[in-house]
Write a structure and sequence with these properties.
Helix content is 62%, strand content 5%. The strands form 2 sheets. The protein has a 6-stranded mixed beta sheet with strand order 4-3-5-6-7-8. The protein starts with 5 loop residues before the first helix and ends in a 6-residue tail after the last helix.
């Protein structure tokens, strides 16, 4: 029994009611989302349903979150479409095979990262980059769905091309489709804001009202499908409908990419892996904190990897943890991943016997569902916070969002990552270097420009607030030389290294040359508060040998030595 997940071994009967209820509610929510996101990915609608069965079970067995709801999500669906549309015709057999291969590659990558314990990859993409990427993707998705609201056929992959095509084709708008699309949009927007409070006023508990409010898309699906089917609007008014959805469980088969497909899919698979993992872990951690539970990132890699392999095996496409579904799952009372297993079982029942009910489901309603879902992902709050706190991060967010909108998904996220790494290097290459003095009556030392401090005549004490490496070593050298040129009385330079975690070879060479140059001018270089690992590497070097007796345990000791040393007078 040790092979069973811990939540199964420790399962309590009192948890069952919450898991059954959450599983049912999430299934009701998952059906329209799965259909909509499959269409967003350029796949037949049933593929979204297939991706909502085995992946959920696989994650339940291997993941670490008790409430994360795994399945198709908007951003990953967009990334799938972006990766595959240049390679094959949307909806074709080749396109479907590539989608399964993309899911397989992403799953293998996640499993490999989990085996290598690379859970720290969750921190590889900064929050501004992720926020900018998701916000830009949301705009891209929403604009791309407008053609279904209007009942138009418009080609174009980017926002500009799509908007131009929509404007040109506007006279061909189908009134019935527009009416259904706009009505669905209005209902879903109003329901998102006002339905839960209205239900609370009618006496429904707040948690139940919130859950019911999030099930509005299913109500829109049921009503619109009934109206279109009753009045045959697909024939009389040209309303585009989902049509026949194949009935029956998916056939299990594994499509392995060949060398050509592997060369084309590895980068999109890697980006989907990173974005999906970061999004999933963020959601899982936020929910786990509310119950004082713990998320293990390495286990999440394995759980999500298994989910994607299972999706590929069952005719699906890449999946990850969804924010809205997970929140509903949590609020509906899910206690363990059994809620996900219940949802998967119910979804299997739907696919096996009830797909005929979706025939008259209008594409416009699915588009409205997507638009309402993704517009909530546009993160204005993070941009405002970043703008007031750190303009560089705010500009990184904007550049990522603009890159996604103007250049596409892959180029946009690569732009954001490049900017983040470039910003990190730029900041490290311009370290804060403070001239410090002693706070009177203490052994504390602070910046002379910020505090009233005491200094020692002839001593220049500098605190370097960054590790020293190739990008900033000469910056430190230039700062020291500028300060020496400004004050000809300096006979000692003290570098306080409390924030220095590493000195690379380039920085070592610069410091060695600087020490020689200063010695030739009768100026002594000394160090204080050098960390043990840094000193271990420094000790056997030429610089370490030359500076014996001039490396102090504390800044206080260095100041005392300078105050009483004969060199002080000179």
């Amino acid at each position: 029994m040790n092979w069973l997940p811990e939540w199964v071994r420790r399962y309590q009967p009192g948890w069952l009611a919450g898991d059954l209820t959450a599983g049912l509610i999430v299934t009701v929510m998952l059906i329209p989302q799965s259909l909509a996101y499959a269409l967003l990915a350029g796949l037949p609608p049933e593929v979204g349903l297939y991706a909502s069965i085995l992946p959920i079970v696989a994650y339940a067995l291997l993941g670490s979150s008790m409430t994360l709801a795994v399945g198709p999500v908007a951003v990953v669906s967009l990334m799938t479409a972006s990766a595959l549309q240049p390679l094959a015709a949307a909806g074709s057999a080749q396109y479907l095979a590539l989608a399964m291969q993309l899911s397989l590659l992403s799953g293998v990558m996640l499993l490999a990262f989990g085996a290598l314990r690379l859970g720290f990859l969750a921190h590889f993409l900064s929050h501004p980059v992720i926020s900018g990427f998701i916000s830009g993707s949301a705009v891209l998705i929403a604009v791309g769905q407008l053609k279904y609201i209007l009942g138009l056929k418009v080609a174009g992959s980017g926002v500009l091309e799509t908007v131009t095509g929509l404007l040109e084709a506007l006279p061909q708008t189908r009134p019935a489709t527009l009416a259904i699309g706009v009505a669905s949009l209005a209902f879903l927007l109003l329901a998102r804001r006002y339905l839960a409070p209205a239900l609370q006023r009618l006496g429904l508990p707040p948690k139940a009202a919130d859950v019911m409010g999030k099930l509005a898309p299913m109500a829109a699906v049921i009503v619109s499908t009934a109206v279109v089917g009753l009045f045959r609007l697909d024939q009389s008014a040209g309303v585009s409908v989902v049509g026949a959805v194949p009935q029956g469980l998916p056939r299990l088969a594994l499509s392995v990419p060949g060398p050509d497909a592997l060369a084309q899919l590895w980068l999109p698979a890697l980006l989907i892996t990173l974005v999906g993992f970061v999004e999933s872990v963020s959601v899982a951690q936020s929910l786990a904190l509310k119950r004082r539970q713990r998320i293990r990132p390495n286990r999440e890699l394995v759980g999500l990897g298994a989910a994607n392999v299972a999706s590929a095996l069952s005719g699906g496409y890449p999946v990850t943890g969804g924010f809205a579904r997970s929140v509903v799952n949590f609020a509906a009372g899910a206690n363990t991943p059994l809620a996900g297993v219940v949802s998967a079982a119910l979804m299997a029942l739907v696919i096996a016997a009830l797909t005929g009910l979706f025939y008259y489901l209008p594409h416009a309603v699915l588009a409205a569902t997507i638009i309402v879902a993704v517009t909530s992902l546009i993160d204005i709050g993070t941009f405002r916070q970043a703008w007031h706190y750190d303009r560089a991060d705010a500009l990184s967010l904007l550049a990522t969002a603009a890159g996604v909108i103007a250049l596409g998904v892959e180029a946009g996220i690569l732009t954001g990552v490049t900017l983040s790494l470039g910003l990190l290097v730029w900041r490290s290459s311009h370290p804060h270097i403070a001239v410090v003095g002693r706070v009177p009556g203490t052994e504390h030392f602070r910046n002379v420009e910020r505090h009233a401090v005491q200094t020692v005549s002839g001593l220049l004490a500098l605190r370097v607030d960054e590790s020293l490496f190739f990008a900033n070593a000469t910056v430190l050298e230039d700062r020291i030389e500028a300060l020496l040129a400004k004050d000809a009385t300096v006979r000692r330079v003290l570098l306080i290294c409390s924030a220095v975690n590493q000195i690379d070879v380039t920085a070592l060479g610069v410091l060695t040359q600087l020490e020689r140059s200063m010695a030739a001018r009768n100026i002594e270089l000394s160090l204080a508060e050098v960390k043990g690992p840094v000193m271990d590497r420094l000790r056997p070097t030429e610089l370490g040998q030359r500076m014996q007796g001039r490396v102090f345990l504390s800044t206080h000791e260095a100041f005392e030595h300078a105050s009483h040393s004969p060199a002080h007078a000179g």
